[in-house]
Specification:
By secondary structure, the protein is mostly helical. 45% of the residues lie in helices and 6% in strands. Strands 1-2 form a two-stranded antiparallel sheet. A two-stranded antiparallel ribbon has the order 3-4.
Length: 213
């Protein structure tokens, strides 16, 4: 059916760029192989993630693997910037913050409205990178708290910035002329024990006060 649908739209699915994955909280036994154009599409094992549009999707959708990879990328970028961002170089604060907002934070928070339901410990790992950056550019001593650093600078916390971007994303969906995107922002009708882990459920639960009147 998928092959016929693609052919009607004059498209051809590339089997070498196609993956089969099963998303569940329980271990699973792979069913029969999927074939596209007579080529088998192997099922990914439980421990492996599949990459789609820059998102690393694990079978449990807890986003830990994705966030850890983004942390590695951000740390690598900070290492490249070490000649100009370190405790001994007096880079002007506005310039340093611009570098963080344009080069580091986009790496950390890529597609954050999708993984907004991740565990708080993953959010804290992202905040640690921001705290370390602020300590570096200010050469702050040990007795200055992270909370004070974040309050002194015009830089949103990671959690607040995820909230802001997710608010924009979900309120923009109804303006898109696409029925699939409209359904993303609606609550599922069927009850499920993990419904609070759907991205929009988490968005409504944690950030309802931010909805505009």
């Amino acid at each position: 059916m998928i092959e016929s649908w693609a052919a009607a739209l004059k498209m051809k699915i590339n089997p070498t760029k196609t993956a089969a994955n099963f998303f569940s909280l329980r271990p699973f036994s792979p069913p029969s192989p999927i074939t596209i154009h007579s080529e088998n599409i192997p099922w990914y094992p439980n421990t492996k993630t599949v990459k789609y549009l820059g998102l690393n999707l694990d079978t449990r959708l807890n986003w830990t693997t994705h966030i850890n990879l983004k942390l590695q990328q951000a740390k690598a970028k900070l290492h490249q910037l070490k000649p100009i961002i370190n405790r001994s170089v007096k880079l002007p604060f506005p310039s340093a913050l611009t570098i963080f907002k344009s080069l580091i934070r986009p790496l950390l928070l890529y597609a954050c409205p999708i993984w907004i339901a991740t565990a708080n410990y993953n959010i804290k790992k992202l905040q640690i990178i921001q705290n370390q950056f602020l300590r570096t550019i200010t050469n702050a001593p040990w007795f200055v708290s992270n909370a004070q650093l974040n309050n002194e600078f015009p830089l949103d916390s990671i959690n607040h910035h995820i909230t802001y971007r997710s608010t924009q994303f979900y309120h923009h969906l109804p303006q898109i002329k696409n029925l699939t995107s409209h359904r993303l922002a609606k609550n599922p009708n069927s009850p499920t024990r993990i419904k609070n882990k759907f991205p929009f459920h988490a968005f409504l639960t944690k950030f309802a006060e931010l909805e505009p009147s």
